[in-house]
From TrEMBL:
Highest taxon above the source species: Bacteria
Keywords annotated in UniProt: Plasmid
Protein name as it appears in the record: Alpha/beta hydrolase fold
UniProt cross-references to InterPro entries, sorted A to Z: GmtX-like
Length: 220
């Protein structure tokens, strides 16, 4: 069996002061990796942790003068039963994100699998609703009575309506069109049904005209 610690001590005695320091940091990282049972001893992975502690980087390990570093990594990888390559199972995880149905197949308990299947279904529903809201970011809330909303939903006629964006000038124009002063000035009258008549009783605006504008002003 390979004794990586013995190889480290031998390499350290032959190294310069600066290189010995780097070897010590690298050895600490490798020993921790081995003790944790992690089989990833690739240069990229080991160098990432080494740099965090002030040790040699991936380029330093790979260049010509980095032979001692590579020898130490290889020793610890062999002791851990691995190699200086990313394990196949970790490569698969890095390159592929499992689909929902693939994740479900990993759950052995049928009841638990069904629960997670429902969670995924609810997640998908909420995501679709969120996408709908994003596509219709400018909305008007329908405040019709609940009974009317229920009936509309049952008949498939419930819709999300875009908001009415009136500017100040347009708002003032609508207010003026149904103001008491305007009708007095014209000598017009308003029926209870919102119909507008002139001084001779002739219809100027149809039933619902005044009430429709007032409702619009109220909800904008």
């Amino acid at each position: 069996m390979v004794d990586a610690q013995m190889i480290f001590e031998d390499l350290k005695t032959q190294a310069s002061t600066r290189q010995a320091k780097s070897l010590t940091i690298l050895n600490k990282v490798l020993k921790a990796q081995c003790d944790a049972g992690d089989r990833n001893f690739s240069i990229a992975e080991i160098a990432r942790m080494s740099v965090d502690l002030g040790g040699p980087s991936a380029s330093t390990i790979r260049n010509k003068t980095g032979q001692v570093f590579r020898q130490l990594i290889e020793a610890w990888a062999t002791q851990a039963g691995s190699a200086m390559k990313v394990p196949v199972n970790q490569l698969a995880k890095a390159n592929k994100v499992p689909k929902d149905n693939e994740l479900l197949t990993l759950i052995g308990d049928p009841a638990l699998r069904a629960v997670f299947g429902q969670i995924i279904a609810e997640r998908n529903r909420f995501r679709n609703e969120l996408n709908t809201l994003k596509a219709n970011s400018n909305l008007m809330i329908d405040i019709r009575p609940v009974r009317q909303l229920d009936q509309a939903a049952q008949h498939g006629s419930l819709q999300i309506l875009p908001a009415l964006n009136f500017n100040e000038m347009e708002m003032e124009a609508l207010k003026a069109a149904v103001s008491d002063n305007f009708f007095k000035h014209r000598d017009w009258s308003i029926s209870p049904a919102g119909q507008v008549k002139d001084e001779d009783g002739r219809e100027v605006f149809k039933h619902g005209f005044v009430s429709a504008i007032k409702k619009t002003l109220k909800h904008v």
